Amino acid sequence: MSDLARFLTHCCDGVVRRQAEIFAIEFYHECLTKEFGGKNVPYTIEQLKKAYNFAFLTQAFYGIGITELMYGANKDKIESDSLKSAYYDFAVLKVLHLFEDADQLLEGEMKEMFEKYGL
Asked: 26 lies in which domain range?
């Protein structure tokens, strides 16, 4: 789930990530079920979702630094000011979506983590 969270948070915008989250974990569980021949699957869908949510929170908080790093590394290679602005806006919106979803998790199904650790 850590790899999935890293991929979806850093390689997808908010729209694609949110759509993929709807089916990706259940699809992964289906693949595990086939791999294990339908027996002794080591994880339930609920356990996978919980593991994904933990990994997502970690990656979401890295989002602002990673986005600035990636944008900053490429901005001198882009000659058009309007294209630079578009890339920057894309990066900011991506991080905004990450933080909105992290906030929703911490106010909802992971509220106990927020209350316990004051994230």
From this structure: 2-117
